[in-house]
Design goal:
Elements: E1 19-29, E2 33-36, H1 38-48, E3 50-59, E4 64-70, H2 74-87, H3 103-113, E5 116-122, E6 125-126, E7 132-138, E8 144-156
Amino acid sequence: MTRPRSVSRSLPTAVGAVTITSSQLVVETPGAGFFDITGEVAKFLREVGATGGTVTLFIRHTSASLTIQENADPSVLKDLTTALDRLAPENAGWLHDTEGADDMPAHVKTMLTGTSLQIPVLNGDMALGTWQGIYVAEHRARPHRREIVLQFMGSTGA
């Protein structure tokens, strides 16, 4: 068995009184693509006075999703779009095409990427990595109004 060169861990922190606060974020997408909502989630945490706990995001749709991805190089998001299009192409002979050729591929892409995220909050900030951002992934070609439920559970400084 190979062991890591080094392992370290911060001291544990405890959450005393627990607050649960929710809000709904509405994102108007112009069509397919990835749309950064990291700043909006951070704003929500500031507004509720979050200090430690967890923020959960849930998108209320079956043809759009949520993901955490690199926020430094835009070509990553273009490559991810290409990869999802290859995994669920429009011309794959889908039976479900009620809303157009991109309807069923959008459902498959959502299944692959997911409808919810859970992110730890430490010292009032999301514990995201340096190059991580939170994105709404719109899988439909037309503009859509997407609703995301934000919920913070933890301690507040208020």
